[in-house]
Amino acid sequence: MSSDQRTKAIRAGLNTDRSWNAVIPPLSLSTAYRREDPAIQPAFDYARTGNPGRSLLADAIAELENAAGAIVTGSGMSAIDLLLHDIPHGARVICSHDAYGGTRRLLDARGRGGRLIPVYVDTTDLEKVADALNEDAALIIAETPSNPRLRISDIKGLARLARNAGTELAVDNTVMSPVLQRPLDWGADYSVQSVTKLLNGHSDMVGGVVCCADPERVAELGWWANCVGVGAAAFDSYLALRGLRTLPLRARAQCESAQEVARWLDADPRVARVDYPGLTSHPGHALAARQQDGFGQLISLELAKDAPDPRAVVSALEIFTLAQSLGGVESLCCIPALMTHASMSPEARAEAGVADSLIRLSIGLESAADQIADLDRALSVA
Ligand SMILES: *Cc1c(COP(=O)(O)O)cnc(C)c1O
């Protein structure tokens, strides 16, 4: 098979149907699979353990990530949680201080029960991570680019620190997808992501995936996924495989529009600051250019002091729907402090640089000219 991401994504799972020679793999909703012999384990047995469509999706994502294998789960959160099942009780888990609000909520909740000790560190600063590793840690979870401030952490540098400290590195690759960044190529042990976002891209299912560098970990985490029952549903897997076929084209077009929108915002006096790794003024620009294959489709911004109230601006936008998700073909906007990151304490948000007035844009596939015109109008009428 070709090493080209476009070819891999389009050809994934085609012509695998042995019942009717369907070109597109069929949707198999059956819970149970008939055995020829009670003593012989069939390829598929029971749907919690395995489903043909889910398995094709896992193979497709693993191929795009250059992974040994992948486990597809029912959400991005259950994918992150899957990594926590077999760490020692009470172990320290180091996590990017500005990670997705749900990731912090999960680690904090597990921390309150004594299952683990969350340690939040600015993972863009390798010295701070090295300091945190002076004490044993079971896992590092780095989100890069981080959501919503789009800070860039050095995956290769983090992987080296993890290896030297005898720990493992997981990268939350949700904002990029395997088309724009392949963390395992830089030495990470796991690439986790929310399939709900850019990977599926059509905002009509919820799913997650853990891609592993080590085939043994694929088997171990697959065992846990079956044990606790977090494998993705058949229909959601079907939709995600369908969405994934156009991922390389969508991601490319969304990056191009985001670059145009970010440049326009950056030049507008009503905007005080734009966070977009594609701008040369972004502190992570050079690193992003090195470890990513594109700058992504997320943009965050702060309005100038005398500009309208950000709540009025997001409410006045029409091409950007006010809704909390990202990565879809449709443009969305949100105020993270009130929406995606509302579960974080105000102190944690302040530490992560998520101001109450921060606006996040997810750039979809409408024309960039229309996206810019919408922003221009909303900034004037609000
Ligand atoms: C959305 C998101 C998640 C959680 O994924 P779900 O599919 O909503 O469970 C995790 N990490 C990041 C960076 C996200 O944006």
UniProtKB/TrEMBL annotation:
<dbReference type="GO" id="GO:0019343">
    <property type="term" value="P:cysteine biosynthetic process via cystathionine"/>
</dbReference>
<dbReference type="GO" id="GO:0030170">
    <property type="term" value="F:pyridoxal phosphate binding"/>
</dbReference>
<dbReference type="InterPro" id="IPR015424">
    <property type="entry name" value="PyrdxlP-dep_Trfase"/>
</dbReference>
<dbReference type="InterPro" id="IPR015421">
    <property type="entry name" value="PyrdxlP-dep_Trfase_major"/>
</dbReference>
<dbReference type="InterPro" id="IPR000277">
    <property type="entry name" value="Cys/Met-Metab_PyrdxlP-dep_enz"/>
</dbReference>
<keyword id="KW-0808">Transferase</keyword>
<protein>
    <submittedName>
        <fullName>Cystathionine gamma-synthase</fullName>
        <ecNumber>2.5.1.48</ecNumber>
    </submittedName>
</protein>
<dbReference type="GO" id="GO:0003962">
    <property type="term" value="F:cystathionine gamma-synthase activity"/>
</dbReference>
<dbReference type="GO" id="GO:0005737">
    <property type="term" value="C:cytoplasm"/>
</dbReference>
<dbReference type="InterPro" id="IPR015422">
    <property type="entry name" value="PyrdxlP-dep_Trfase_small"/>
</dbReference>
<dbReference type="GO" id="GO:0019346">
    <property type="term" value="P:transsulfuration"/>
</dbReference>
<feature type="modified residue" description="N6-(pyridoxal phosphate)lysine">
    <location>
        <position position="197"/>
    </location>
</feature>
<dbReference type="GO" id="GO:0004123">
    <property type="term" value="F:cystathionine gamma-lyase activity"/>
</dbReference>
<comment type="similarity">
    <text>Belongs to the trans-sulfuration enzymes family.</text>
</comment>
<dbReference type="Pfam" id="PF01053">
    <property type="entry name" value="Cys_Met_Meta_PP"/>
</dbReference>
<keyword id="KW-0663">Pyridoxal phosphate</keyword>
